[in-house]
Backbone:
């Protein structure tokens, strides 16, 4: 089973997408606008379907905003067939196009093909402050050795590291990592940060900075 995020302003099409993809055993979340896509959705999704022509933030703008956060295939759903539009979408980080109106069988086949390729592909890694993040396995390494973190601790590290140099409040970190519907409150972030710092300090690593009165940030690569 894969987690699919479908974003389209057409309610009838959202229902069709959900029905078709759930038939293959996938879990489907539908949103009616691009601006509703959060970092939590990006961390959760194995594949994202984006309508191009949406009011407000269109599919291209959404793809540009979330591409660095979503380590999964992004497929555009669009009636725009001009070559310039196709090139633009792929240049923004999209992986494929489905031209409207499309057959649901083709949609299911395309999604499942991308999911199979995703499973075969090496997982993407990034390095921040000497720490290696395996974004696929959700694992952190220091000098080749795994760092033992809880899922919540890892998720906070990944979120801050992906946005190194940017300051987030406790509320923003909590919403990005645990979602709006999670049980608990932002005070949990303080405890997680304390535990993370203790574990990384034992390695001689201190990448998380407190910005007093604001929140936390991950050091930029040019900082000591």
Residues:
């Amino acid at each position: 089973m894969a987690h699919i995020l479908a974003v389209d302003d057409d309610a009838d099409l959202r229902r069709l997408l959900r029905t078709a993809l759930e038939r293959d055993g996938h879990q489907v979340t539908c949103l009616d606008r691009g601006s509703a896509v959060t970092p939590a959705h990006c961390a959760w999704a194995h594949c994202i379907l984006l309508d191009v022509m949406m009011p407000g933030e269109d599919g291209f703008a959404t793809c540009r905003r979330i591409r660095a956060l979503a380590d999964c295939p992004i497929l555009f759903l669009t009636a725009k067939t001009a070559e310039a539009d196709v090139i633009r979408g792929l240049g923004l980080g999209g992986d494929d196009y489905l031209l409207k109106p499309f057959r649901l069988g083709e949609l299911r086949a395309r999604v499942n093909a991308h999911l199979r390729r995703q499973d075969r592909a090496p997982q993407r890694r990034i390095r921040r402050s000497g720490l290696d993040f395996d974004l696929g396995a959700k694992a952190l390494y220091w000098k080749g050795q795994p760092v033992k973190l809880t899922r919540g601790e890892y998720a906070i590290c990944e979120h801050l590291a992906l946005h190194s140099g940017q300051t987030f409040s406790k509320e923003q970190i909590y919403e990005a990592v645990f979602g709006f519907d999670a049980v608990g409150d932002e005070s949990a972030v303080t405890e997680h940060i304390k535990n993370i710092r203790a574990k990384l300090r034992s390695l001689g690593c201190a990448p998380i900075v407190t910005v007093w009165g604001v929140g936390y940030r991950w050091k930029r690569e040019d900082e000591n």
User: Anything to note?
Assistant: The two ends are 43 Å apart (CA to CA). The chain has a mean pLDDT of 87.
